[in-house]
Amino acid sequence: MWDKTTILMLIEGIGATLQMTLMSTLMAYVLGLPMGIALVVTAKKGLRPNPAAYKLLDMIANIVRSIPFLILLILVIPLTKVIIGKSYGSTATIVPLTIAAAPFIARLVESSLQEVDKGVIEAAQSMGASTKTIILKVLLVEARTSLIVGATIATGTILGYSAMAGVVGGGGLGDIAIRYGYYRYETDIMLVTVVLLVALVQILQYIGMKLSKKLDKRITG
Amino acid sequence: MDTIIQIRDLGKTFTGKDNTVEALKNINLDIHKGEIYGIIGMSGAGKSTLVRCLNFLERPTTGTVLIEGQDLSMMNDATLRKTRTQVSMIFQHFNLLMQRTVLENICFPMEITGYSKKDAKSRAMELLEIVGLTEKAQAYPAQLSGGQKQRVAIARALATNPKILLCDEATSALDPTTTKAILKLLKEINEKYGITIVIITHEMSVVQEICTHVAIIEQGELAEYGTVEDVFTNPHTDAAKKLVFQTEQGVLHMNGKRCIRIVFNEISSFEPVIGNMVLECKAPANILLADTRNINGIAHGQMILQLPEEEHLANKMIHYLLERKLTVEEIDDYVG
Fold first, then answer.
1. Domain B3-244 has CATH 3.40.50.720
2. A69-97 pLDDT per residue, tens
3. Which one in A122, A152, B96, B280 has a CA-CA gap of 20 to 30 Å to A168?
4. HSE of B202 in the Cβ direction (CA atoms, 13 Å)?
5. ipTM score for this prediction
6. Burial, A97: exposed, middle or buried (Cβ in 10 Å; 0-12, 13-18, 19+)?
7. CATH 1.10.3720.10 fits A4-214, yes or no
8. Chain B residue closest to A130 (CA)?
9. Beta-carbon neighbour count of residue B116 at 10 Å?
């Protein structure tokens, strides 16, 4: 089994998985970060309480998060076709991954920002800071360690989801695992892909934790 | 003297799910330029809410606050924010930005008001020198002690040259020695820059140490106010008495025989009044409490005496003390 084509296929699989994961995470943050900020700002005790807006965002987050990813994958096929032009392959998988991950990320961002000391926010207000300044210079900066930890969790989760996309021909390591391991009973290749997936998550987790620690100034010595 | 803060018919009600709390009721108070005004009360009295109404971090339910004659309730958002740069605030838990260095923390209010980076930095260094922390410019708040953090907070509060400094329990998280040092710094700032300071506290010792005026808040109402000396020598209300008699052991409970409270001023300290009184009346008096407090550099002694049971002896003693021009007050009705 360890011929050149198989190895090449696995390497390509790693590349495709990483591309899907990182692109989806990035896109999901483009949507999820503002959504998470909006959830915090419009909340009852937020900087600009707005019950209607909060309720709407809260509902969207809950609905999208309660749809099983496999179903969502199929549900958004028409949309994927419009955006990417085809509904299979690793690029196409980015669309459902982004949609599924954005509300999850919004929740992660929300909980990170809620951890910021209310007193510090109050201090900024007492200095005459605007809501925008408080978001950009207080909330996001003070919560950055927690935000990076959140991003690490999000990336790991999205990587797992990307493997699931293999079922509908999503490409990447998950796709290989399903094609060889499930449809062709080549268990050894499936095991190799699983090991590779585990290794990828480990590496991402390691990088994320290192980075968050390095940027945290609350730790002395 | 110019009035810098006018509190007018101020009231604040918090509406909860199943109850409403009237945190402040009908507060009227004038604070003049250059004063160090103490606002004292037990916890839950509403003093923290009151100080947050002074810069509209809390919007009052009724009434308003005028800063230099400008009504805060009439201001739009932008004007209110601009006014806030002139009304700085420091807090019990310092509230520094933990992810910024000391220097960057002090620069923060100047970033908000639009100083250039270079100007902000040089002003921040100046301020660090005032609070005596120049060598900590590049440190992070997590590396500082409580007293140092409060110094940074004070430097940060002074950055935009405010006219008023609000202190919300600013020394309550500090040990006695550090408290003294911080209060000294505040006094220096008041004297040097003429900044009006409003100090919220639950400790009489803080008021005695630096305040010129004091207001006593009890259950959301202004119980009593005036110069620290007046309120201390002659407290009218129960709330004021409670605070003046507050000792380290807590509030004394006295009942039974007649008790009087005597306040000594600087003149009377020269004569051994109590000794002479005992000699003159030929009867002993029981000293229940005696202490000396330093109010703005003048020593004020107070003493609580339990008088003999014989009516005529007791009256004679009171008469003797009154003749010596001491403030004498019967407190036999006073319990805790």
1. no
2. 889 988 998 999 999 888 888 888 999 99
3. A152
4. 13
5. 0.87
6. buried
7. yes
8. B81
9. 10
